[in-house]
Amino acid sequence: MTWKRCRGLIASDLWRHAGRLGAGTFWSRFLSTPGLRYTAVLRFYAYARTAAWCQLGVRQMAVLLLHHYSIRFGIDISRDARIGSGLYIGHFGGIVVNAAVVIGDNCNLSQGVTLGQVNRGPKGGLPTIGNNVYIGPGAKIIGRIHMETHAAVGANAVVVEDVPPHAAVGGVPARVISEAGSEGYVKPHGLPAHTRKVTRSLGRSHHGARLVRSARSMERHAGQ
After folding, report:
1. Which H helix or E strand runs over 67?
2. Least CB-packed of 39, 132, 155, 204 within 10 Å?
3. What is the pLDDT of residue 133?
């Protein structure tokens, strides 16, 4: 990952939290918002793991910070998870995301969420989360589950089947209870037009959409 892309991803996360950009806004939110602090260090680690100048202690410091914040805030998102722009963690505690999980753009993770692995059977594997998805408090998404764009998961739901676009699911096991999806819960990061340097750093197409397409392509090849 380039430093330009790293900055763009951090800016998109900040915009989801604060609705504005700037160094003052970043440091204020970084110091006061555990979710943003964790994601900012996570983004920096993705840059540091490939930057030559970070190999002499900086990358290792980022790993130690993530470990510290995992214990302090109860957020355990694997460093190998592939995450799009505009990640929003409003409340911390009990959040677990497995290493091979893919999360698209503009997604919300609430407290108590688990995105985990199933080791056997037709749903063996890990979840792929589309763009603009809301995952409510205590929700569990387990196995090779595809959550399509603008979907939503209610509190304490256990998702073991694919979720169609614009659907809201709830219950144990989760079932479709509404077609309103994540409307009203997830707002696209909508970076302002004047921040062209930031928007260019995110690329012409959505970073999260590319991640989701890549994950599905890998699944198809694995099944052949």
Report:
1. helix 58-73
2. 204
3. 96
Q: What span, in angstroms and rounded, lies between the C-alpha atoms of 57 and 122?
A: 43
* Residue from 38, 36, 35 nearest 26 by CA: 36
DSSP H or E stretch at residue 88: strand 88-89
Residue type, 88: Y
Alpha-carbon Rg of the chain, whole angstroms? 17
Q: What is the pLDDT of residue 222?
A: 54
- If pLDDT is split at 50, 70 and 90, which confidence band does 220 have? low
Task: Please write the tens of the pLDDT for every residue from 158-202.
Answer: 999 999 999 999 999 999 999 999 999 997 656 665 554 554 555
User: Three-state DSSP class for 119?
Assistant: coil
Asked whether 120 and 142 are in contact (CB, 8 A), the reply is: no
Q: Establish whether the linkage from the previous residue to 173 is cis, with ω within 30° of 0.
A: yes
At how many degrees (to 10) do helices 3-18 and 23-32 cross? Answer: 70
Give the number of residues written for the chain: 224
Contact 154, 177 (CB under 8 A): yes
CB count in 10 Å sphere of residue 16: 26
Domain limits of the chain?
Answer: 3-223
Range 3-223 classified under CATH 3.90.1010.10: no
